[in-house]
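Support case: user asked for a sample of complex input and structure output to validate their parser. Sending the pair below.
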Amino acid sequence: MAKTVEIAGAGLAGLCAAARFSQLGWKVTLHERAKDLRMFGAGIWLWESGLKTLSILGAYDQAVARARRIQEWRIVDSRGRTLMSRPTPDHDRMLLPPRADLYQALIDRCVANGVEIITSSIVTEVRPEGVLVTEAGERNADLVLIANGAYSVLREQILGTAWMDFGVEAGIRMMIGNRPDDPTDVITEYWNGPWRLLYNPCTEGENYIFLSAPVNDERARVLPVDRALWAEKFPAASDLIERFSEASRWDRLVNVRCRRWSQGKVAIIGDAAHAMPPNLGQAANTAFTNVMALALAADRAIDMPSALVGWEQQQRSLTNHVQWWSYLYGYVLNRWPKSIESLRSDVLSTMSKTQWFDEALNRGARHLPVG
Ligand SMILES: Cc1cc2nc3c(=O)[nH]c(=O)nc-3n(C[C@H](O)[C@H](O)[C@H](O)COP(=O)(O)OP(=O)(O)OC[C@H]3O[C@@H](n4cnc5c(N)ncnc54)[C@H](O)[C@@H]3O)c2cc1C
């Protein structure tokens, strides 16, 4: 008889898990509290780690069909000086599709593999013996996955939260229309003090913009976006700012670290396990590779609780590393004293040319998933 997995949350992590477990022949049920499966307008950075995962799942072609192939990620300061230039050659790729394309590709894999997706299904409890509870009742499974995002309450039921940091930074995401002169393969990240404007080529018709600012900056958190503020901070990007759209989304950028990733037959994945600020664009990619390793460990398990502990031991240090670098990046961006900002430019432009920095920043992006 097929093994069973019950998953709480149909975000990118839950869908990736559902697609992989069903591909391995498991009977999968995915619970989503929302009425329907819908993704908001933004792009997403996909690195080798995520792209290889999608290939294994059979979701690659659909997910990146419209994506721009990025050749370089560049950071520039307020005086136009390049602080970092990260090339993304063919053996170390980055593609940038709309989130909705990635989301739909994973949904379609799940549907094709026979996953039961139950919307308007709120998971209220999980128990280590392999029980998931919704308003409709209790369900038993060989494995239960908590995949319900950074603010997961279910995480507490396996006494998971070690540290939740609400950070000092918030971000706004939106799509804007293209113009013929827009760069098509270079991401530019403009820095000015703790403010950031990130331009991402995304599809033939649209680009993706990410803005970040101190969380207590009242002007930066209003929606629709206050164009005057951003034009003041980033005059060099005025051509982008005049195209800012009204449809945008504001999020506080949080960190989550767990005491453990499993208890009994319950495991935790995605942002529920390791939310991090999006500074490296690697959080979902990290979730994907963790899910791939989890599926293999669970599929081979003779004793599920021990297999889950083994999985965490195998994956945890790389996840911690990615999270730490993402945190550090945010720290340098947000907390560097204004009076010595030019020193930041000097330090970063020197450090970012070293092999050590490149290896550390990109270790997660280059990690290959199992399977
Ligand atoms: C501004 C920003 C930019 C980012 N950019 C990138 C990037 O470029 N590349 C990258 O790799 N990562 C990026 N990330 C991170 C990435 O978006 C997340 O890691 C990823 O979306 C997390 O997916 P998830 O499934 O773990 O959680 P979520 O997306 O939060 O999904 C959780 C799901 O669970 C559902 N849910 C909640 N509670 C319940 C319940 N009780 N019962 C049932 N369902 C429930 C929710 O409705 C939701 O659908 C970015 C993050 C931010 C904030």
